[in-house]
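It would be a great kindness if you could assist me with a short task in structural biology. The matter concerns a single protein, recorded as an amino acid sequence and a row of backbone structure tokens. Kindly check, if you would, that the fold set down in the tokens agrees with what the sequence suggests. Thank you for your consideration; the sequence and its tokens are set out here:
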Amino acid sequence: MMAEKSKALPFLDKPAALDGSAPGDVGFDPLGFTENFQNLRYLQQAELKHARVAMLATVGFLTTQYVHLPGDAYQNPNPIAAIAQVGYGVNLQILIGIGIIELINWDNTFNGTTPPGDYGFDGGFLKNKSEKDIATMKLKEIKNGRLAMVGIVGMIWAYLSTGQPTLG
């Protein structure tokens, strides 16, 4: 019997752990993460976290180039230099906040019973939605998140290469 082929890369076999049940699962795992990590939930949580952060980062990257807060520390249109320019205190607060959120969700990340990415609040976006609508929203989130992950890397690379604003 021949192995089932990946929808994403039809010339490769579909990884055994990817059964198509997760939003956006099209059998794409060229680096073999699903074979090396036993906890598929952890991988799904990590992808969603990275996707959400990348979506925020793309907005923040563009915003820092064109919108500036009052004060000398915030006037630099270089989004890379802006990280260091605000000082250690601000960056440390952000890092500690992220660490607290990660510690609160530690058990849910590895052993939780809720779907990956579900932290108990959704802003009302899924309220009174059918299962089909919820599945569609989750698929949109992961697809836009994957695009944002590629996009933020491209924006950073372009800025470092040219020194020009992204939309300039």
Remarks:
- The CA atoms of residues 6 and 14 lie 4 Å apart.
- The longest helix spans residues 131-162.
- Residues 46-66+76-114+128-168 form one domain.
